[in-house]
Amino acid sequence: MNANLSRAQQAFKELVTLRRGFHAHPELSWKERRTQQKILEYLDKWGIPAVVSTGTGVIATLEGARNKDVVLGIRADIDALPLTEAAHPPYVSQNQGCMHACGHDTHIAMLLVTARLLAEKKDDLPLTVRFLFQPAEEYIADSGALHMKEDPLVKAITRMIAIHIQGMLPYGMANLQEGPIMAASDTFDIFIKGRGGHGAHPEEAIDPIAAGVAYYNAVQTLVSRETKALDAAVIGITSFQSGETSNVIPETARLMGTCRTFSPTLRERFPKQLERLARGIGEATRTTIEACYHYGTPVMVNDPSVTQTGLAAAAAIFGRDKVITEEPRMGGEDFAKYDAPKAMLCLGGGFEDEKRRKAQHNPQFDIDERALPLGVAYFLEYVDEYGRKLDGTAI
């Protein structure tokens, strides 16, 4: 067995305990105070220097015994989602309406154990390794990476890697490839102002709900009728809010949604399309409609050089036949905002029983915890593989 895989497998129980602890106590973006405190406590116990960064984040550093100016950043996101957990594992969320439904609990656990295991061999560390526990990945409009990238400790990083667990990719598999892997991810708000009135006399009011329905229906044509069939794009309304009671026509309505694409041209076009609909439907329904577009994360692109090192490390841990290439995903990832060359590996966490597999952001999301040591082993192997390249001893 690969030496790094063996070391990681020996930490399996520790990984499970850590992961379940964070899973049971999820915290929303920019509110990860308990999570931050626990991370700091573990790092302090293991003698790993760490500092608070970006409000609720943490950065820890192990200085290399050689190649000290080469700084590898390894990042884990730490926030949870505003979801109520529908499954009831022993480690179910204790925070009502908040859940680790995107696997960030696993990312924290894997990075903590990676730091501990690398600290045990710090006297032979082939480069400097910096561990980024980043808040607010899920907060698209003002995500944690946008702020953490400005920390001088992050600016000194020369390349970065990360893992994202995948609930639909079977345990034992990994997905790593060069080039675009995740779409640009933006959000929008549609504010509709009508005139409130009695539900019995709609002729005396201007109904913002009717305008919202018209806007919702019109948005469906932006991809189906205005976008080339071969261009990947998503424009979706995911929230419609208006009214509070049955006999009052409300004054306002609000729609929220998301736009996803790999095309810079389409991304530039989306705000103009939404504004055009606002003008036209507003006039047609006698309402005032304002479309507000918020640029979020750019396309996540795996750097060729960083990826090639990762592929060598992944082959050593998973086996070459288990490292696959998949179509890019329409999900967004704020790891894309970091300036250093980077690559993200997607780690299979799917259960053998396909019925138990759930995608990210599902209230029943969970993972096969046997995947955790594989993620740690990949990080350890990446450090060794990159070190061999720096030392000129890579095969």
From TrEMBL:
<dbReference type="InterPro" id="IPR011650">
    <property type="entry name" value="Peptidase_M20_dimer"/>
</dbReference>
<keyword id="KW-0464">Manganese</keyword>
<dbReference type="InterPro" id="IPR036264">
    <property type="entry name" value="Bact_exopeptidase_dim_dom"/>
</dbReference>
<dbReference type="GO" id="GO:0019877">
    <property type="term" value="P:diaminopimelate biosynthetic process"/>
</dbReference>
<feature type="binding site">
    <location>
        <position position="104"/>
    </location>
    <ligand>
        <name>Mn(2+)</name>
    </ligand>
</feature>
<dbReference type="GO" id="GO:0046872">
    <property type="term" value="F:metal ion binding"/>
</dbReference>
<feature type="binding site">
    <location>
        <position position="138"/>
    </location>
    <ligand>
        <name>Mn(2+)</name>
    </ligand>
</feature>
<dbReference type="GO" id="GO:0050118">
    <property type="term" value="F:N-acetyldiaminopimelate deacetylase activity"/>
</dbReference>
<feature type="binding site">
    <location>
        <position position="361"/>
    </location>
    <ligand>
        <name>Mn(2+)</name>
    </ligand>
</feature>
<keyword id="KW-0479">Metal-binding</keyword>
<feature type="domain" description="Peptidase M20 dimerisation">
    <location>
        <begin position="187"/>
        <end position="273"/>
    </location>
</feature>
<dbReference type="InterPro" id="IPR017439">
    <property type="entry name" value="Amidohydrolase"/>
</dbReference>
<dbReference type="Pfam" id="PF01546">
    <property type="entry name" value="Peptidase_M20"/>
</dbReference>
<dbReference type="InterPro" id="IPR002933">
    <property type="entry name" value="Peptidase_M20"/>
</dbReference>
<dbReference type="Pfam" id="PF07687">
    <property type="entry name" value="M20_dimer"/>
</dbReference>
<feature type="binding site">
    <location>
        <position position="102"/>
    </location>
    <ligand>
        <name>Mn(2+)</name>
    </ligand>
</feature>
<protein>
    <submittedName>
        <fullName>Amidohydrolase</fullName>
    </submittedName>
</protein>
<feature type="binding site">
    <location>
        <position position="164"/>
    </location>
    <ligand>
        <name>Mn(2+)</name>
    </ligand>
</feature>
<keyword id="KW-0378">Hydrolase</keyword>
